[in-house]
Design a protein that fits this description.
The protein has a single domain (5-346), classed as Alpha-Beta Barrel (TIM Barrel). By secondary structure, it is α/β, with parallel strands linked by helices. The protein contains 16 helices and 9 strands. The longest helix has 24 residues, at 175-198. The chain has helices spanning 9-14, 35-44, 47-51, 54-67, 81-85, 114-120, 122-134, 148-157, 165-173, 175-198, 216-237, 254-260, 274-280, 293-298, 300-314, 333-346, and strands at residues 72-74, 90-93, 97-100, 140-146, 203-208, 243-247, 265-267, 286-291, 319-323. The chain binds coproporphyrinogen III. The site of coproporphyrinogen III (CP3) has 21 residues, from strand 3.
């Protein structure tokens, strides 16, 4: 882990300290809304080539920090590198998103081999070392991974569309074999998070982007319980390392993630009312979120109003300002600059 951890506002918020203004970073802050990213991407060739080029991946991670005074820098990578490291065929279809050769119920399950994964993902860890070395002093460095359930939706669904019928019917029909898949992915994810901390990350975030596809009993088994084990494995291996969970779409069940997993923060999507999050989540851990990315894209008065509502409600407890979902590709970069300014001014500091 990097030096100067005490001087990073994002880490202070995750320790439970209330701050005015709150620390700010954005999910998917590196990416297609930035012209300099598009230029880098064109140089790299494929998206995965960019993820596996340490110099270019580090540069993509740092690009948003050159423009905006953000309190966090997230490694440029993707949740699907873990599926790739498990030996599944993964590629990114230009303009369409990820594709995987799907695993079906009854197929041989992938096998986690820690040594093989470490070798396969060595360029990712080298990129992390470079980011931690070059990050501005006050910016916390984030590693990340997909949650086992969300990775399984891609590994079984093949990446096409938002149809969870195949993965869910496997989970309902053959829970024992599905549990083995989730278990394998959980081990791979834990090792990946720990390796990123060893390479210089200050904290990690786990993206459970499709948690909202499950009713409570299944969410319990395939999301909450694996999250609890992930948090405890990471903290057992690297004591003090903060973990943020992002159970998108979990709604009121976010409270169970806050109470039962040991996470330092719950990152909430834009549908969660800030007043509810303040009452039900902040007593247990920090809250991160939850500006609608379309308000950021739209800008103007709507952006200002949305920012004010969130700040008024959540700055009274431990809070990290973020979006509820990732930055949209059409977002004008100047709106991100405006957001940074609004959070700094309205969040309690007058010196901009
Ligand atoms: O936050 C960051 O800036 C760091 C990088 C990052 C990427 N993906 C880069 C990326 C992170 C944290 C992710 C997480 C991710 N990837 C998630 C979880 C968060 C979420 O948005 O729900 C998921 C589900 C994926 C899988 C994935 N990767 C999809 C569905 C797609 C295609 C659609 C899309 O959102 O772009 C990707 C591709 C991808 N991952 C791009 C980037 C910058 C675009 C690739 C390109 O340059 O063409």
């Amino acid at each position: 882990m990097s030096k100067n951890r005490d001087a990073k506002p994002l880490l202070a918020a995750l320790r439970g300290e209330r701050q005015q203004p709150p620390p700010l970073w954005l999910m998917r802050q590196a990416g297609r809304y930035l012209p300099e990213y598009r230029a880098l991407r064109a140089r790299a060739g494929s998206f995965l080539d960019l993820c596996y080029d340490p110099a270019l991946a580090a540069e993509a991670s740092l690009q948003p920090l050159r423009r905006f005074a953000l309190d966090g820098v997230i490694l440029f990578s993707d949740i699907l590198v873990v599926a790739d490291a498990l030996g599944q065929k993964v590629w990114f279809q230009e303009g369409e998103g990820p594709r995987l050769e799907p695993i079906a119920e009854g197929d041989a399950l992938p096998v986690f081999d820690e040594e093989r994964q470490r070798r396969h993902l060595a360029p990712v860890y080298e990129a992390m070392e470079r980011v931690a070395e070059a990050a501005p002093a006050g910016a916390a460095v984030l590693g990340f991974a997909g949650a086992p359930w969300t990775l399984a939706t891609y590994m079984v669904g093949g990446g096409r569309g938002r149809d969870f019928t195949a993965v869910k019917s496997w989970a309902y029909r053959e829970p024992e074999s599905f549990a083995r898949l989730i278990e394998t992915v959980r081990e791979a994810v834990a090792a990946h998070l720990i390796a990123q901390l060893d390479a210089g990350a200050d904290l990690v975030q786990v993206f459970d982007s499709w948690a909202g596809a499950l009713p409570e009993a299944e969410l319990d088994r395939w999301c909450i319980e694996p999250a609890r084990r992930l948090v405890s494995d990471v903290k057992a291996a690297r004591p003090g390392a903060p973990v943020i969970l992002y159970p998108r779409g979990a709604g009121v069940l976010c409270e169970r993630f806050a109470r039962e997993t040991g996470a330092d923060a719950i990152s909430v999507d834009s549908t969660v009312p800030p007043v509810w999050a303040a009452a039900h989540l902040q007593p247990h851990c920090a809250v991160q979120g939850n500006l609608d990315p379309v308000a950021l894209l739209a800008g103007g008065d709507a952006l200002e109003r949305a920012v004010r509502t969130i700040l008024e409600t959540l700055v009274h407890g431990p809070f990290v300002f973020n979006l509820g979902e990732g930055v949209l590709p059409g977002t004008p970069p100047e709106n991100v600059a405006t957001l940074c300014d609004l959070v700094r001014r309205r969040g309690g500091r007058d010196d901009g």
